[in-house]
Amino acid sequence: MSEPLLTVDALRVDLPVDSGLGSVLRDVSFTLDAAESLGIVGESGSGKSMTVRAIDRLLPRGAEVSGSIRFDGLDVMALGKRDLAAYRMRVAMIFQDPRAHINPLRTIGQFLTEAVVTNKVMGKRAAEERSTSLLAEVGVDRPQSRMRQYPFELSGGLLQRVMIASALITEPDLLLADEPTTALDVTTQSEVMAILDEIRRERGMALIFITHDLDLAAAVCDRTAVMYAGSIVETNASAALHDHPMHPYTAALAEARPSMTSRARRLTVIPGVATSGLQAPSIGCAFAPRCTHAEPACTTSAIALRQVGTDRTSCLRAEEIFGVRHGN
Ligand SMILES: Nc1ncnc2c1ncn2[C@@H]1O[C@H](COP(=O)(O)OP(=O)(O)OP(=O)(O)O)[C@@H](O)[C@H]1O
Ligand SMILES: [Mg+2]
Asked: Which domains does the chain have, with CATH numbers?
């Protein structure tokens, strides 16, 4: 078998906090093949954004990183400035709130073309032509006149399509999408999601898709990883993970049926308070205080992902609670 496109191995990120350094990610490991899609799901503070920020080398100042990230043979942590710029053309990122990531004083056309023209990836004319056709491809109407408009003239849904077009301009191999539809209304959410999915399939682009919504991840992604308190607690093929969770946190997320409004989708009905990596215990399961299945061993044992069937779970009691399925 060939090497995966992306290999994240034992990634740990410590950030400066009041009391010194605090871990926001601990022992995060996963792989992603070319053209594969991975959903990362978890409550607020679980470390989803930090994971993709580490992959794109966009961590906050003062962050200390250990472990490794390899992309197509490159040691991402070791990339110098010039190689990092080239790497970022192959690994593009889109964010939750398009308005926060676009200069309001620049036209859509300037926004789309400036970076590639400055970095001499293509000439101005070619960049404009490519941007216009990408806008059409992501479903923006009247693309030529849109190029001359300013961000305030576009709705949130249109602006997120512009962001997708801007991420595609360098034909990346991997797209990191950090809750790209959360800020949009429900109808626009599903339209933007459908476009993202279609474009990814057509281009054979790999995708890491971050969401709070387990159902959405399962619908869009080949595999899903569930994060809690700075660690991956379960990962499997999306359908298997969704239908047969092997970690009580995943099961709780699956049962926390969100209502159909976008605001409510961010809420969870899992009792107790979500924990970030910063509050996680150094030993034992971070979810134990909220887990209806917790036993004393859960707070005193070392916790690590282990293989159960096709599933990888960090729950000590997974087989007892969920049974063992063949071909899970
Ligand atoms: N610049 C920073 N300095 C210190 N801690 C930070 C910083 N940015 C984020 N954190 C902390 O790191 C942890 C993980 O944050 P992260 O943004 O990855 O969470 P998330 O899973 O993306 O949550 P959300 O769903 O709310 O976006 C949180 O506890 C957060 O408070
Ligand atoms: Mg986030």
From this structure: 6-282 (3.40.50.300)
